[in-house]
Amino acid sequence: MLPMKPKRREVGIVGCGMSRFSSHREEVNQPEMVHEAVVEALADAGISMAEVDCVLHGNMELFEMVHQPDMWHALGTGVPGKAGIRLTTGGTTGATLACAADNLVASGLHDFVLAIGFEKLQEGHATGGISNMADPLWGRKLQAGALTGTTAQAVIDEFGAERARNAAMKLRVIMDEHAMLNDKAHRRFGLERQFIKEMADNSPPLVGELRMIHMCSQSDGACAVIFASEEKIAEKGWNAAWIVDHETVHREETLVFAREKTTHRVAAERLYARNGITNPRAQIDVFEMYDPSAWWGLDWIREFLLLEGDEHLKMVENDEVAITGSFPINPSGGVMASNPIGATALVRVAEAALQVRGAAGQHQVPKPVNLALASGFGGTLWTVLMLLSKDKPSREVSSTPHSPLQLAARNSQPETRSPSPLQLATRNSQLETNSSPNPQSAIHNPQSELILSRQVLSIPQRFATGPIMGRFLRELRDNKRILALRCKKNGRFLLPPREVDAWSMTEGDEWVEVGPEGAVRDFDIVYYASPDPLTGETREVPYVIAWIQLDGVEGDAPLWHLLKVDDLAQVHSGLRVRAVFAEHRHGAMEDIQHFEALP
Fold this sequence. Notes:
Helix 12 crosses helix 13. This protein has helices spanning 30-45, 61-64, 69-77, 93-106, 126-131, 150-159, 161-179, 196-202, 230-236, 263-274, 280-283, 294-304, 311-317, 341-357, 466-479, and strands at residues 11-18, 54-58, 83-87, 112-120, 205-207, 210-211, 220-229, 241-249, 286-288, 371-378, 382-389, 394-395, 405-406, 482-486, 493-494, 510-514, 517-526, 543-550, 559-564, 576-581, 592-597. The chain is α+β, with helices and mostly antiparallel strands.
């Protein structure tokens, strides 16, 4: 991996602003909510909107179904007359905004760039929106949004049910303890450690071992971050959080479920190698991690820190990830506390910057923070990592086009101080959400009636299958045959067949009949009644989604489909199954109605 190219100039974060995060911000509309974050960021930096050169705007428009919302939000963003760019990369949108802002300032094109991420999820339907993403020919009938229990099951299989469940719930409680210190966080429950088992047992199941208490929220909120050039930072004498480096890695295909090295680990390996980080637990002071659930968060600690064995579990069990621990993770409360998806990854960057600047308030890490890490995560397992430093990076100038990054010397034994004890609220049987109108809001008037405008969008769609997927669907319809496509160059099987193997960038060139029998590799039991994006009707639960390795398929290429059984207890990895074809077939993935267990 080549070292990072020298920047034309260094870039630092000088202003951060966030709205209050809540399940419902019905007292403000979208531009007004975005305006809260923008005003706070400008005040934090001590500049006016007139000094901002460029505005970046990002969200997941699929969720609110307001297309090109940046045009409407001009009312609250201050973009008129400015250079403006709109970015969307799924759940990683906020982190992509931060990377783009850094690049725009580092290039010399702009001195000040304002990055804005937002989401108003209560005005749309996030699970329905996610179920509509990517492949419309196969995934929509199977998607349960962003919910999956396969990671939980993998952790249980590796470390045992009791230890794995306790570690996941302890991590969830630690995140809530942090959220209790953050008055802008959405979910601030006051969870108590002594009730870890009872909370997990009594929380409604979503998918497999994933329960509601483990899962992140759906939040309304906005985040704004101001990036400035080194010249402006020096001119104004700012306390900046300097951008050291960033890395992006993603999986190219939606329907590839092979077990390659995770994008988290690949991104971390590349970032650390470029920046001389050989022991991230010792060299990095705080980590704002995009943690969509307690199970993912638990598993991903190992990936991001390049750990082996059970070291990540021990870090949670020994309180190392707590705000007072040796390696604090998400002192803000993380994604499990607040999740306005288009802003969520930008919040991670903003919170890391606040820690570096010593400006995080009640949830400031008590030890000195010299180096901070922030991550973003999104669909098709897309990872973004950003490294921030208290000290301005010095980049060695040499004759080579790719000079290594030399970080400023750091004190290996920083002083620590103990914070005041966490004041945890008594946990009620009915957990509260931060959903009441903000009494300090200049817009909210307690005497005013809040009027909601309800609208329904119904847009018929048609999708071309193309010659490859078309042949696959034709064989299902006419002959009840399942065909896979194999790439002769690398031997990879594509199932369902794709036009191009994304890993080798070559076309598959050999059709192979496979199945109709096979074995379950992984599975999810879904308890959450998500909407069917094609009908709008709520799906009947529970149902099982399985990754099935069909007979005749070589390598790691399972087919994703529904599995119907009489008893959920009989579902296990290795279960032999066969395809059940519909009586009336019309050339679609549901021509295979489902798979059933073999007697």
